[in-house]
Amino acid sequence: MSAYCSHIYLSKLETNGKKLDTTNTINELYKTLHSKGIVATRKEFYEDWLNRSECYFRYLKFKNKSPSADALAICSSKLKHYSSLLEQHNYKYLANEFHIYSQRFDELISTNGKLKWLNFVENKSD
After folding, report:
1. I want to staple 95 with a disulfide (CB 3.0 to 4.6 A). Which of 37, 48, 87, 89 is the partner?
2. What is the DSSP letter of 68?
3. Mind listing the pLDDT tens digit for each residue in 84-107?
C-alpha cells in the first residue's frame, strides 16, 4: 500500500462521524464512569478498567504513545461483561452505553492493528 493510500485510509477514519482516537475514547469513558459514581479517580479507572497503573499512562503521555491493545481489550471485555449484567437487571440505557464503548474499543484495536501491518507491508516493499 502506498503512502498516499495510507493517508486516504487515515483521513476516512477521521471523517466517519467522530474521530477514532484512543485517548479521547478513554477520557470519555472515564468521564462517563466518574459521572455515574462508578469510579472516583483516574487512578481507580486505570487500575480497575484498563488493568494498568497511573504511571503507565503518564509514561504514554510523555512518549506520545497509545495504550496497548491488551489494555484496550481488557477494558472492552469488562464493558461487555457489565453491559450484559446491566441488561439483565433492566438498566438498559447504561447497558447500551457500555456496549457502545466496547464496540469503540474493539474498533480501535482492529484499526490500530491494521495500520501496523499495513505500515509493515509498506516498509517491507520499499
Report:
1. 87
2. P
3. 999 999 999 999 999 999 999 999
